[in-house]
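Hey, can you fold this one?
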Amino acid sequence: MNYTIQSADLTQAIRSLHTATGMEITILALDAEELLTYPRHKGAFCSRVQTCARGAKRCRRSITDACGSTRMEAADSVATCHAGLTTAVTPIFDGTADIGYLWLGPCVKAETPAPEAWEQARCGCGPCPDFSAMEQAFYALPRVTGEQLSAYVYLMKAFAVFIAQQGAIKRNYRADFVRVQEYIDFNLAQDLSAAALCAALYVSRNTLFRIIRDETGLSLGQYVQKRRLAYANQLLRTTDHAILEIAGECGISDFNYFSRLFKKEYGLTPRDYRRGLYRKSG
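Sure. Predicted structure:
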């Protein structure tokens, strides 16, 4: 995803949030890729976990799951990662669509006895090249009460609004449209519902609808239908595939419905359209 970032303004904002909470603050893109973190270097515990491929994969899954929950619920999310650590994430909303996430953590719940929390983390992370260093890094993590975490989430909301209003981070929707278009065109025979696209492309429904509407003036359903029919047109012109087969390749399994849609779009049924092509070529 393409973003324009005012790094000085953004860094100042998340530095202030770090000062207030004592925890690592990260700005994430809608696909959960890291855009900016303060302090700059990842916390020692997570860095230790991510030294092995298995740990890095689990960390990545925990992040995408938390962001996905936030996106689907359109609300803040307090999540527990695979190591049993607590994180918080809130959407950054520019007034019309989500543009990213503000992420806080990790931390350890103060209500859980430290040895118990460490045992959960150790089991969740699996083997580590330097076990003693990972244990030391764990006990250096912030311990936060539920009341403190609620207060931090409240602050995160305010900072997310500030970041969006200041224009410190902006989405390049044209680049997003190209990404959506490419995904649709490569998956025309698959499920292209809003839910499926949001899950595959890591965008909220509002963002997806805005991307399509701003670039085409169409609804998502209208746009997907046009792409499917355009592909059908191409196959009729360039292949000898049976029309029923073409309908399936375009993701429209009902032959009669496909014929009606095609005629509405191009003025001829698929069969008459192909006959006309044959007559012209002859």
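The mean pLDDT is 87. Let me know if you want another pass with a different chain boundary.
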